[in-house]
Design a protein that fits this description.
Blueprint: H1 2-16, E1 17-18, E2 22-23, E3 33-34, H2 35-46, H3 50-62, E4 73-75, H4 86-89, E5 102-103, H5 112-122, H6 126-150, H7 164-167, H8 176-180, H9 193-196, H10 205-220, H11 225-231, E6 236-237, H12 239-259, H13 263-284, E7 285-286, E8 291-292, E9 294-296, E10 301-303, H14 321-335, H15 365-377, H16 381-398, H17 424-434
Antiparallel strand pairs: 1-2, 3-4, 4-5, 6-9, 7-8, 9-10
Helix pairs in contact: 1-17, 2-3, 2-5, 2-17, 5-6, 5-12, 6-12, 12-13, 15-16, 16-17
This protein binds (2R)-2,3-dihydroxypropanoic acid (DGY).
Length: 437
Protein backbone atom coordinates (compact mmCIF):
# COMPACT_ATOMS: atom_id res chain seq x y z
CA UNK A 1 0.00 0.00 0.00
CA UNK A 2 2.70 2.43 1.02
CA UNK A 3 4.73 1.69 -2.12
CA UNK A 4 1.73 2.49 -4.30
CA UNK A 5 1.16 5.67 -2.35
CA UNK A 6 4.81 6.61 -2.77
CA UNK A 7 4.45 6.25 -6.54
CA UNK A 8 1.24 8.24 -6.42
CA UNK A 9 3.00 11.02 -4.47
CA UNK A 10 5.67 11.22 -7.18
CA UNK A 11 2.96 11.29 -9.85
CA UNK A 12 1.19 14.18 -8.06
CA UNK A 13 4.37 16.25 -7.91
CA UNK A 14 5.39 15.50 -11.48
CA UNK A 15 1.93 16.36 -12.80
CA UNK A 16 1.94 19.68 -10.94
CA UNK A 17 5.41 20.66 -12.21
CA UNK A 18 5.09 23.29 -14.96
CA UNK A 19 7.14 24.22 -18.03
CA UNK A 20 8.13 27.53 -16.43
CA UNK A 21 10.24 25.62 -13.87
CA UNK A 22 7.90 25.75 -10.87
CA UNK A 23 5.19 23.59 -9.30
CA UNK A 24 1.59 24.61 -8.71
CA UNK A 25 0.16 23.66 -5.29
CA UNK A 26 -3.01 22.19 -6.84
CA UNK A 27 -4.60 22.34 -10.30
CA UNK A 28 -7.50 24.78 -10.63
CA UNK A 29 -7.46 26.22 -7.11
CA UNK A 30 -3.84 27.44 -7.06
CA UNK A 31 -2.47 27.89 -10.61
CA UNK A 32 0.80 29.80 -9.84
CA UNK A 33 3.93 29.47 -7.70
CA UNK A 34 3.45 29.98 -3.94
CA UNK A 35 6.50 30.71 -1.82
CA UNK A 36 6.20 28.32 1.12
CA UNK A 37 4.62 25.63 -1.03
CA UNK A 38 7.63 25.79 -3.33
CA UNK A 39 10.00 25.21 -0.44
CA UNK A 40 8.16 22.11 0.81
CA UNK A 41 7.82 20.85 -2.76
CA UNK A 42 11.59 21.13 -3.33
CA UNK A 43 12.16 18.88 -0.31
CA UNK A 44 9.96 16.21 -1.91
CA UNK A 45 11.67 16.49 -5.30
CA UNK A 46 15.11 16.25 -3.63
CA UNK A 47 14.35 12.58 -2.86
CA UNK A 48 13.94 11.47 -6.45
CA UNK A 49 14.65 14.30 -8.92
CA UNK A 50 17.38 16.64 -7.68
CA UNK A 51 17.30 18.78 -10.81
CA UNK A 52 13.62 19.59 -10.32
CA UNK A 53 14.30 20.47 -6.67
CA UNK A 54 17.02 22.90 -7.75
CA UNK A 55 14.84 24.37 -10.50
CA UNK A 56 11.97 24.97 -8.07
CA UNK A 57 14.21 26.96 -5.73
CA UNK A 58 16.06 28.75 -8.51
CA UNK A 59 12.80 29.97 -10.01
CA UNK A 60 11.48 31.18 -6.67
CA UNK A 61 14.69 33.01 -5.82
CA UNK A 62 14.80 34.48 -9.31
CA UNK A 63 11.57 36.33 -8.47
CA UNK A 64 13.26 38.11 -5.55
CA UNK A 65 13.01 41.90 -5.53
CA UNK A 66 16.05 44.20 -5.44
CA UNK A 67 15.46 44.91 -1.74
CA UNK A 68 15.70 41.19 -0.84
CA UNK A 69 11.93 40.66 -0.55
CA UNK A 70 10.51 37.35 -1.86
CA UNK A 71 6.81 37.49 -2.80
CA UNK A 72 4.14 35.03 -1.71
CA UNK A 73 2.78 34.34 -5.21
CA UNK A 74 4.73 34.56 -8.47
CA UNK A 75 2.27 34.93 -11.35
CA UNK A 76 4.14 33.06 -14.09
CA UNK A 77 1.15 32.89 -16.40
CA UNK A 78 -2.08 34.69 -17.14
CA UNK A 79 -4.81 32.65 -15.49
CA UNK A 80 -8.26 33.87 -14.64
CA UNK A 81 -9.17 30.87 -12.49
CA UNK A 82 -7.69 32.60 -9.41
CA UNK A 83 -8.73 35.73 -7.53
CA UNK A 84 -7.09 38.10 -6.65
CA UNK A 85 -4.59 37.88 -9.51
CA UNK A 86 -1.68 40.00 -10.74
CA UNK A 87 -3.88 42.90 -11.85
CA UNK A 88 -5.27 43.27 -8.37
CA UNK A 89 -1.96 43.01 -6.52
CA UNK A 90 0.06 45.28 -8.88
CA UNK A 91 3.54 44.52 -7.52
CA UNK A 92 4.93 46.99 -10.08
CA UNK A 93 3.87 49.78 -7.69
CA UNK A 94 6.96 49.04 -5.60
CA UNK A 95 10.04 50.65 -7.21
CA UNK A 96 12.30 47.67 -6.40
CA UNK A 97 9.91 44.89 -7.47
CA UNK A 98 10.97 42.32 -10.06
CA UNK A 99 10.86 43.58 -13.65
CA UNK A 100 10.69 40.02 -14.88
CA UNK A 101 7.84 38.50 -12.84
CA UNK A 102 4.57 39.93 -11.68
CA UNK A 103 3.79 38.94 -8.11
CA UNK A 104 1.95 39.87 -4.97
CA UNK A 105 3.38 42.59 -2.72
CA UNK A 106 3.26 40.42 0.36
CA UNK A 107 5.41 37.50 1.44
CA UNK A 108 4.98 34.11 3.14
CA UNK A 109 6.92 32.25 5.86
CA UNK A 110 10.71 32.23 5.32
CA UNK A 111 11.28 28.64 4.27
CA UNK A 112 14.14 29.08 1.83
CA UNK A 113 17.04 28.78 4.33
CA UNK A 114 15.98 25.52 5.94
CA UNK A 115 14.89 24.12 2.57
CA UNK A 116 18.44 24.52 1.19
CA UNK A 117 19.72 22.69 4.27
CA UNK A 118 17.17 19.89 3.84
CA UNK A 119 18.16 19.55 0.19
CA UNK A 120 21.78 19.18 1.30
CA UNK A 121 20.82 16.56 3.90
CA UNK A 122 18.88 14.54 1.32
CA UNK A 123 21.34 14.84 -1.60
CA UNK A 124 23.49 11.85 -2.53
CA UNK A 125 25.99 14.06 -4.32
CA UNK A 126 26.85 16.51 -1.52
CA UNK A 127 29.50 18.33 -3.54
CA UNK A 128 27.12 19.07 -6.36
CA UNK A 129 24.42 20.25 -3.95
CA UNK A 130 26.86 22.48 -2.07
CA UNK A 131 27.78 24.10 -5.38
CA UNK A 132 24.12 24.79 -6.02
CA UNK A 133 23.72 26.21 -2.52
CA UNK A 134 26.75 28.47 -3.05
CA UNK A 135 24.99 29.98 -6.06
CA UNK A 136 21.75 30.70 -4.20
CA UNK A 137 22.53 31.26 -0.53
CA UNK A 138 23.32 34.99 -0.68
CA UNK A 139 19.78 35.59 -1.96
CA UNK A 140 18.41 33.94 1.16
CA UNK A 141 20.74 36.03 3.31
CA UNK A 142 19.49 39.19 1.54
CA UNK A 143 15.94 38.08 2.27
CA UNK A 144 16.65 37.74 6.00
CA UNK A 145 18.42 41.10 5.99
CA UNK A 146 15.29 42.58 4.38
CA UNK A 147 13.15 41.19 7.24
CA UNK A 148 15.35 42.49 10.04
CA UNK A 149 15.79 45.91 8.41
CA UNK A 150 12.19 46.50 7.38
CA UNK A 151 9.87 44.34 9.46
CA UNK A 152 11.06 44.97 13.01
CA UNK A 153 10.19 48.60 13.85
CA UNK A 154 10.91 48.27 17.58
CA UNK A 155 14.18 46.41 16.96
CA UNK A 156 13.07 43.38 18.98
CA UNK A 157 14.34 40.59 16.72
CA UNK A 158 10.69 39.68 15.98
CA UNK A 159 9.46 40.50 12.49
CA UNK A 160 5.86 41.40 11.69
CA UNK A 161 3.48 40.24 9.01
CA UNK A 162 1.08 42.84 7.62
CA UNK A 163 -1.46 40.49 6.07
CA UNK A 164 -3.04 37.22 7.18
CA UNK A 165 -1.98 35.67 3.84
CA UNK A 166 1.64 36.31 4.88
CA UNK A 167 1.14 33.94 7.84
CA UNK A 168 0.21 31.00 5.61
CA UNK A 169 -2.59 30.23 8.11
CA UNK A 170 -5.00 32.39 6.12
CA UNK A 171 -8.29 32.35 8.01
CA UNK A 172 -7.16 31.28 11.46
CA UNK A 173 -9.59 32.26 14.24
CA UNK A 174 -6.60 34.11 15.68
CA UNK A 175 -7.38 36.97 13.28
CA UNK A 176 -11.07 37.28 14.25
CA UNK A 177 -10.41 39.91 16.91
CA UNK A 178 -8.37 41.97 14.46
CA UNK A 179 -11.25 41.90 11.96
CA UNK A 180 -13.43 43.40 14.69
CA UNK A 181 -11.13 46.45 14.80
CA UNK A 182 -11.67 47.04 11.04
CA UNK A 183 -14.63 48.05 8.96
CA UNK A 184 -13.69 47.53 5.30
CA UNK A 185 -15.97 48.44 2.40
CA UNK A 186 -18.08 45.69 0.81
CA UNK A 187 -16.02 44.76 -2.25
CA UNK A 188 -17.70 43.70 -5.44
CA UNK A 189 -15.71 40.77 -6.86
CA UNK A 190 -16.07 37.27 -8.20
CA UNK A 191 -14.60 34.58 -5.98
CA UNK A 192 -12.83 31.78 -7.89
CA UNK A 193 -11.81 29.52 -5.00
CA UNK A 194 -15.41 28.52 -4.27
CA UNK A 195 -15.86 27.32 -7.85
CA UNK A 196 -13.14 24.71 -7.14
CA UNK A 197 -13.88 23.88 -3.49
CA UNK A 198 -17.05 23.74 -1.38
CA UNK A 199 -17.64 27.16 0.22
CA UNK A 200 -18.02 25.57 3.67
CA UNK A 201 -14.30 24.70 3.51
CA UNK A 202 -13.14 28.22 2.54
CA UNK A 203 -13.02 31.73 4.12
CA UNK A 204 -16.21 33.84 4.08
CA UNK A 205 -16.99 36.79 1.76
CA UNK A 206 -16.62 39.24 4.66
CA UNK A 207 -13.21 37.78 5.46
CA UNK A 208 -12.19 38.41 1.82
CA UNK A 209 -13.32 42.06 2.21
CA UNK A 210 -10.81 42.39 5.05
CA UNK A 211 -8.08 40.68 3.03
CA UNK A 212 -8.60 42.98 0.03
CA UNK A 213 -8.82 46.11 2.16
CA UNK A 214 -5.39 45.53 3.73
CA UNK A 215 -3.91 45.09 0.24
CA UNK A 216 -5.57 48.32 -0.91
CA UNK A 217 -3.93 50.25 1.93
CA UNK A 218 -0.53 48.77 1.04
CA UNK A 219 -1.08 49.62 -2.65
CA UNK A 220 -2.07 53.21 -1.85
CA UNK A 221 1.41 53.41 -0.31
CA UNK A 222 3.20 51.61 -3.15
CA UNK A 223 4.00 48.70 -0.83
CA UNK A 224 6.40 50.92 1.12
CA UNK A 225 7.40 49.01 4.28
CA UNK A 226 7.67 52.03 6.59
CA UNK A 227 4.22 53.24 5.51
CA UNK A 228 2.74 49.77 5.96
CA UNK A 229 4.23 49.58 9.47
CA UNK A 230 2.60 52.93 10.20
CA UNK A 231 -0.79 52.37 8.58
CA UNK A 232 -1.70 48.72 8.16
CA UNK A 233 -4.63 47.73 10.42
CA UNK A 234 -3.10 44.25 10.50
CA UNK A 235 0.40 44.08 12.04
CA UNK A 236 1.22 40.84 13.86
CA UNK A 237 4.23 39.04 15.29
CA UNK A 238 3.41 35.48 14.32
CA UNK A 239 5.11 32.57 16.14
CA UNK A 240 5.07 30.31 13.06
CA UNK A 241 6.57 32.95 10.78
CA UNK A 242 9.27 33.89 13.29
CA UNK A 243 10.04 30.26 14.15
CA UNK A 244 10.62 29.55 10.47
CA UNK A 245 12.87 32.60 10.20
CA UNK A 246 14.88 31.36 13.20
CA UNK A 247 15.07 27.85 11.75
CA UNK A 248 16.30 29.34 8.47
CA UNK A 249 18.82 31.61 10.28
CA UNK A 250 20.38 28.51 11.82
CA UNK A 251 20.45 26.80 8.42
CA UNK A 252 22.25 29.82 6.93
CA UNK A 253 24.84 29.78 9.73
CA UNK A 254 25.47 26.04 9.28
CA UNK A 255 25.64 26.25 5.49
CA UNK A 256 27.93 29.30 5.44
CA UNK A 257 30.29 27.52 7.85
CA UNK A 258 30.27 24.52 5.54
CA UNK A 259 31.02 26.72 2.53
CA UNK A 260 33.80 28.64 4.34
CA UNK A 261 34.54 32.39 4.46
CA UNK A 262 31.52 34.71 4.84
CA UNK A 263 32.59 35.75 8.37
CA UNK A 264 30.75 39.06 8.25
CA UNK A 265 27.49 37.45 7.22
CA UNK A 266 27.79 34.72 9.83
CA UNK A 267 28.43 37.35 12.50
CA UNK A 268 25.31 39.28 11.47
CA UNK A 269 23.06 36.23 11.46
CA UNK A 270 24.31 35.14 14.89
CA UNK A 271 23.43 38.61 16.18
CA UNK A 272 19.91 38.47 14.69
CA UNK A 273 19.47 34.95 15.93
CA UNK A 274 20.30 35.48 19.59
CA UNK A 275 18.07 38.55 19.80
CA UNK A 276 15.22 36.76 18.02
CA UNK A 277 15.30 33.68 20.23
CA UNK A 278 15.43 35.75 23.41
CA UNK A 279 12.50 38.00 22.43
CA UNK A 280 10.53 35.05 21.13
CA UNK A 281 10.75 33.34 24.53
CA UNK A 282 10.22 36.54 26.52
CA UNK A 283 7.34 37.98 24.53
CA UNK A 284 5.44 35.19 22.81
CA UNK A 285 5.22 32.52 25.53
CA UNK A 286 1.98 32.50 27.51
CA UNK A 287 2.64 30.64 30.76
CA UNK A 288 -1.06 30.38 31.67
CA UNK A 289 -1.93 28.73 28.36
CA UNK A 290 1.29 26.69 28.29
CA UNK A 291 1.91 27.69 24.66
CA UNK A 292 3.37 30.36 22.39
CA UNK A 293 0.85 32.87 21.03
CA UNK A 294 0.58 35.57 18.36
CA UNK A 295 1.13 39.22 19.29
CA UNK A 296 -1.01 41.99 17.78
CA UNK A 297 1.56 44.75 17.25
CA UNK A 298 -0.98 47.24 15.89
CA UNK A 299 -3.20 47.09 18.96
CA UNK A 300 -0.38 46.08 21.33
CA UNK A 301 -1.84 42.94 22.86
CA UNK A 302 -1.20 39.21 22.85
CA UNK A 303 -3.78 37.09 20.99
CA UNK A 304 -4.44 34.39 23.53
CA UNK A 305 -5.41 31.34 21.46
CA UNK A 306 -3.65 28.03 20.92
CA UNK A 307 -3.02 26.94 17.32
CA UNK A 308 -0.67 24.45 15.68
CA UNK A 309 1.61 27.49 15.15
CA UNK A 310 1.90 27.64 18.98
CA UNK A 311 3.95 24.42 18.87
CA UNK A 312 6.09 25.31 15.82
CA UNK A 313 8.96 26.72 17.98
CA UNK A 314 9.86 23.05 18.61
CA UNK A 315 10.91 22.90 14.95
CA UNK A 316 13.37 25.77 15.43
CA UNK A 317 14.89 24.74 18.76
CA UNK A 318 13.46 27.79 20.52
CA UNK A 319 12.07 26.47 23.85
CA UNK A 320 14.23 25.16 26.69
CA UNK A 321 13.72 21.42 27.33
CA UNK A 322 11.51 22.30 30.34
CA UNK A 323 9.35 24.60 28.25
CA UNK A 324 9.20 22.00 25.48
CA UNK A 325 7.69 19.62 28.07
CA UNK A 326 5.01 22.17 28.87
CA UNK A 327 4.25 22.67 25.16
CA UNK A 328 3.91 18.97 24.45
CA UNK A 329 1.65 18.53 27.49
CA UNK A 330 -0.59 21.31 26.18
CA UNK A 331 -0.62 19.75 22.73
CA UNK A 332 -1.51 16.28 23.96
CA UNK A 333 -4.05 17.57 26.45
CA UNK A 334 -6.03 19.72 23.99
CA UNK A 335 -5.22 18.31 20.53
CA UNK A 336 -4.09 14.74 21.22
CA UNK A 337 -7.22 12.76 22.28
CA UNK A 338 -7.48 9.18 21.01
CA UNK A 339 -10.51 10.14 18.90
CA UNK A 340 -8.39 12.61 16.93
CA UNK A 341 -5.56 12.73 14.46
CA UNK A 342 -2.69 15.06 15.28
CA UNK A 343 -2.50 17.94 14.82
CA UNK A 344 -5.54 20.20 14.47
CA UNK A 345 -4.65 23.69 13.26
CA UNK A 346 -6.76 25.31 15.98
CA UNK A 347 -7.60 24.41 19.57
CA UNK A 348 -10.39 21.77 19.39
CA UNK A 349 -11.64 22.85 22.84
CA UNK A 350 -12.27 26.45 21.68
CA UNK A 351 -15.68 27.70 20.44
CA UNK A 352 -14.11 29.00 17.23
CA UNK A 353 -12.85 25.55 16.22
CA UNK A 354 -14.31 24.28 12.94
CA UNK A 355 -12.98 20.86 11.82
CA UNK A 356 -13.83 21.42 8.12
CA UNK A 357 -12.84 24.99 7.46
CA UNK A 358 -9.33 25.58 6.13
CA UNK A 359 -7.15 26.94 8.97
CA UNK A 360 -9.90 27.00 11.61
CA UNK A 361 -9.32 23.39 12.68
CA UNK A 362 -8.25 20.93 9.98
CA UNK A 363 -4.93 19.05 9.99
CA UNK A 364 -2.26 20.28 7.56
CA UNK A 365 0.61 18.03 6.48
CA UNK A 366 3.22 20.81 6.41
CA UNK A 367 2.52 21.64 10.07
CA UNK A 368 2.65 17.95 10.98
CA UNK A 369 5.98 17.62 9.17
CA UNK A 370 7.51 20.52 11.11
CA UNK A 371 6.12 19.25 14.41
CA UNK A 372 7.31 15.72 13.68
CA UNK A 373 10.89 16.95 13.17
CA UNK A 374 10.71 19.27 16.18
CA UNK A 375 9.37 16.58 18.51
CA UNK A 376 12.02 14.14 17.31
CA UNK A 377 14.75 16.71 17.90
CA UNK A 378 13.66 17.24 21.53
CA UNK A 379 13.49 13.50 22.18
CA UNK A 380 9.69 13.13 22.25
CA UNK A 381 10.04 9.91 20.31
CA UNK A 382 6.54 8.54 20.88
CA UNK A 383 4.65 11.72 20.08
CA UNK A 384 6.86 12.24 17.02
CA UNK A 385 6.05 8.70 15.85
CA UNK A 386 2.34 9.37 16.28
CA UNK A 387 2.59 12.67 14.36
CA UNK A 388 4.16 10.79 11.45
CA UNK A 389 1.79 7.83 11.71
CA UNK A 390 -1.32 10.05 11.83
CA UNK A 391 -0.12 12.00 8.77
CA UNK A 392 0.44 8.81 6.79
CA UNK A 393 -2.87 7.35 7.92
CA UNK A 394 -4.79 10.43 6.81
CA UNK A 395 -3.19 10.25 3.38
CA UNK A 396 -3.83 6.50 3.14
CA UNK A 397 -7.45 7.03 4.10
CA UNK A 398 -8.27 10.09 2.00
CA UNK A 399 -5.50 10.74 -0.56
CA UNK A 400 -3.22 13.74 -1.10
CA UNK A 401 -5.70 16.42 -0.05
CA UNK A 402 -4.87 19.95 1.04
CA UNK A 403 -6.26 19.51 4.60
CA UNK A 404 -8.03 16.90 6.69
CA UNK A 405 -10.59 16.52 9.44
CA UNK A 406 -8.86 15.79 12.76
CA UNK A 407 -11.85 13.73 13.97
CA UNK A 408 -11.42 10.01 13.38
CA UNK A 409 -15.20 9.80 13.15
CA UNK A 410 -16.58 12.78 11.21
CA UNK A 411 -20.14 11.52 11.29
CA UNK A 412 -20.27 11.70 7.48
CA UNK A 413 -21.46 8.80 5.39
CA UNK A 414 -18.67 9.32 2.87
CA UNK A 415 -15.89 11.16 4.66
CA UNK A 416 -13.34 12.88 2.46
CA UNK A 417 -10.27 15.10 2.57
CA UNK A 418 -10.85 18.82 2.16
CA UNK A 419 -9.69 21.67 -0.12
CA UNK A 420 -7.67 20.92 -3.24
CA UNK A 421 -6.89 17.31 -4.19
CA UNK A 422 -3.52 16.12 -5.53
CA UNK A 423 -2.00 18.81 -3.36
CA UNK A 424 1.74 19.17 -3.90
CA UNK A 425 3.10 19.69 -0.40
CA UNK A 426 1.01 16.82 1.02
CA UNK A 427 2.73 14.59 -1.57
CA UNK A 428 6.20 16.14 -1.09
CA UNK A 429 6.25 15.90 2.69
CA UNK A 430 4.74 12.40 2.64
CA UNK A 431 7.78 11.43 0.57
CA UNK A 432 10.11 13.07 3.09
CA UNK A 433 8.36 11.62 6.16
CA UNK A 434 8.40 8.01 4.94
CA UNK A 435 12.11 8.45 4.28
CA UNK A 436 12.78 9.81 7.80
CA UNK A 437 12.86 7.51 10.86
C1 LIG B 1 -5.60 31.54 -1.12
O1 LIG B 1 -5.92 32.07 -2.17
O2 LIG B 1 -6.40 31.05 -0.32
C2 LIG B 1 -4.16 31.43 -0.80
O3 LIG B 1 -3.93 30.56 0.23
C3 LIG B 1 -3.56 32.77 -0.50
O4 LIG B 1 -2.20 32.56 -0.32
Amino acid sequence: MKEDLYKKAIAVLDANFQDGGFTIPSAGLYPFQWKWDSGFIAIGFAHYDVEKAKTEMRTLLDAQWKNGFIPHIVFHTENDSYFPGADFHQSELHPLSSKRYRSTGMTQPPVTGFVLQEMYRIADDKKDMLNFIKEEIDKVYANHEYFYKNRDPQDEGLVYIYHNWESGTDNSPVWDDIWKTMNPPEYDFVRKDTTHVDASQRPSKREYDHYLHIIDIAKQNNYNDAKIAELSPFLVQDPLFNAMLIKSNQALIDLYIQIGGNEERIKNIIKWQSKSIKSFNDKLFDADLGAYVHYDLRNENPIRHITSSSFSPLFANIPSPERADVLVNTMMDKFGGEDKYLCASFDPTNDRFNPRKYWRGPVWINMNWMLFLGLKNYGFTDVAARMKQDSIELIEKYGFYEYFDCRKDTGDENPTGYGGNNFSWSAALFIDMVNTD
